TrEMBL record:
Predominant location category: membrane
Membrane-crossing residue ranges in chain numbering: 6-26, 33-53, 65-82, 94-117, 147-167, 179-198, 210-231
Pfam families cross-referenced by the UniProt entry: LrgB
Compartments where found: Membrane
InterPro entries named in the record: CidB/LrgB
Taxonomic lineage of the native organism: Bacteria, Bacillati, Bacillota, Clostridia, Eubacteriales
Protein name: LrgB family protein
Topology within the bilayer: Multi-pass membrane protein
Source species, domain of life: Bacteria
Keywords: Membrane, Transmembrane, Transmembrane helix
GO cellular component: membrane
Length: 232
């Protein structure tokens, strides 16, 4: 069985889709934010690989084709942004300041915690792009000399965590302005957070989509500056 699964071209795609479908089903039944479909699919895939003793490389040989859909899926986020174009123009100053502040907060937090936990410079720069979308984060990590695989894992975990707690945080701090909600979610938890913003409302989704792009660009500009700070 293990050999058959390992040699199948479709194995990686099939268990990835099955895992995510299972996650959607669990989320629809239990309605709890902690049961994030992506998180459940990750756990499902790991369990399948461990149980059947399948190498990650064998799984990724088929699953990698799903990654090709990442770019067009991200581009589709421009649709709600276009629909709220006038809102964007009317709040351009607030949007720019809000997103830039969010990026600065993320980079500063990583810098302080890296210093506190005495991380190496390589580990430090690996964590810097944690809040931006994977496509941009990989490039930033590679440019700064980080560990790309860990950067991807950190970005995914950040997105899942943001998706789970977004609504609760907004309720806790009584944030009700749709623009503020969207910007906060998109700036801190990129595409995965944006899926939650789209569930909340059209304006929230549009602003979160905008935040993904702008936050990525601002991070590309500021990350090298933060990376020059001595950690050790």
């Amino acid at each position: 069985m293990t050999e058959i699964l390992s040699n199948s071209v479709y194995f990686g795609v099939v268990i990835s889709v099955l895992g995510y479908s299972l996650g959607l089903w669990v989320k629809s039944k239990l309605k709890w934010g902690v049961f994030n479909p992506l998180l459940i699919s990750i756990i499902f895939v790991i369990l399948v690989l461990v149980i059947f003793n399948i190498e990650y490389e064998s799984y990724n040989e088929g699953a990698k084709y799903l990654s090709y859909l990442l770019t067009p899926a991200t581009v589709c986020l421009a649709v709600p942004l276009y629909q709220q174009l006038q809102l964007l123009k009317n709040n351009l100053k607030a949007l720019t300041i809000g997103i830039t502040t969010g990026v600065l907060s993320s980079l500063t937090t990583v810098t302080i915690l890296s210093k506190f936990f005495q991380l190496t410079d390589q580990q430090f720069v690996t964590l810097l792009p944690k809040s931006i979308t994977t496509a941009i984060g990989i490039g930033v990590s590679e440019e700064l000399g980080g560990i790309i695989t860990l950067t991807v894992a950190t970005i995914i975990l950040t997105g899942i965590f943001g998706n789970i707690i977004a609504v609760s945080v907004c309720k806790l701090f009584k944030i009700t302005e749709p623009i503020a909600i969207g910007l906060a979610i998109g700036t801190s938890s990129h595409v995965m957070g944006t899926t939650k913003a789209l569930e909340i409302g059209e304006v929230e989704g549009a602003m979160s989509s905008l935040a993904i792009v702008v936050a990525g660009l601002v991070t590309v500009l500021l990350a090298p500056l933060f990376a020059s700070f001595p950690i050790i």
